[in-house]
Write a structure and sequence with these properties.
Elements: H1 5-13, H2 15-23, H3 32-48, E1 56-57, H4 70-83, E2 87-95, E3 98-107, E4 112-117, H5 125-140, E5 145-156, E6 159-165, H6 167-171, H7 174-187, H8 211-215
Parallel strand pairs: 1-2, 4-5
Antiparallel strand pairs: 2-3, 3-4, 5-6
Helix pairs in contact: 1-2, 1-5
């Protein structure tokens, strides 16, 4: 089945959240205002693709759907890496079925710099962990990542994108990712629902879409981070 970047980050927040994603996704409740923020984050990410000029996007959908075809995207990415494409967006990588798609890779003399785009005013540690997962997968695919940046939104439309260098911190998360990724992979395949006591993880760092299911309520308290910062 494999673990994606989103799977990993959600599973590290709460193992039950990941299990429900895989087995009972119909229980999700995504409020309209949260969906609007997610859409705004997607729009910001789409605009950021051109921050260094011309680029090649790797997104490939399964026929008749808006579901990314991970294998075809990974193959397309390999072709562009071999061709030395200067800027690759949504660059996809598979390692033992574990998957990530990097927002932007920019070619350097010895490899690529990685840019993770977040529609947020500042860098949060959760974003660095997110980038660390990508570095882990991409490196295991034999691609050298030199510098790692979190791209946050700038002060105005003349300066819409601000890259912040987080290289050492992101690369430092590799052992942490390796420690947990295989256990999460096994856990998500379990037939019986994973049991986790409700607690701080229900809203920290993001509000859980299954809050109502686990708490018997429909309106969760304010999350620490807004959902446009999730993607």
């Amino acid at each position: 089945m494999g673990i994606t970047k989103t799977d990993f980050m959600r599973g590290m927040q709460c193992r039950k959240m990941l299990w429900l994603d895989k087995h009972r996704p119909g229980l999700r409740v995504i409020p309209p205002e949260i969906q609007e923020r997610l859409d705004a984050g997607n729009d910001f990410g789409d605009r950021a693709m051109g921050m260094f000029g011309p680029f090649e996007e790797m997104t490939v959908y399964r026929p008749g759907t808006r579901i990314p075809d991970k294998k075809k995207m990974a193959e397309k990415t390999k072709q562009h890496l071999l061709a030395g494409t200067p800027v690759i967006c949504e660059a996809a990588f598979l390692n033992y079925n574990n998957y990530c798609a990097a927002d932007l890779l920019r070619k350097t003399e010895k490899g690529y710099d990685l840019y993770e785009v977040k529609n947020a005013p500042e860098v949060r540690e959760q974003f660095v962990k997110d980038a660390g997962f990508q570095v882990y997968i991409i490196s295991r695919c034999g691609v050298r990542i030199e510098r790692v940046y979190i791209v946050i939104h700038g002060p105005d439309e003349e300066n819409p994108f601000v890259p912040v260098d987080v290289t050492d911190r992101a690369k430092g998360y590799a052992p942490w990712v390796n420690e947990h990724i295989w256990g999460l992979n096994r856990m998500q395949k379990e037939r019986e629902e994973v049991q986790v006591e409700v607690g701080e993880q229900c809203t920290c760092p993001y509000e859980c879409w299954y809050y109502g299911y686990c708490h018997g309520q429909t309106t969760p308290p304010q999350a620490q981070l807004s959902m446009e910062e999730y993607i």
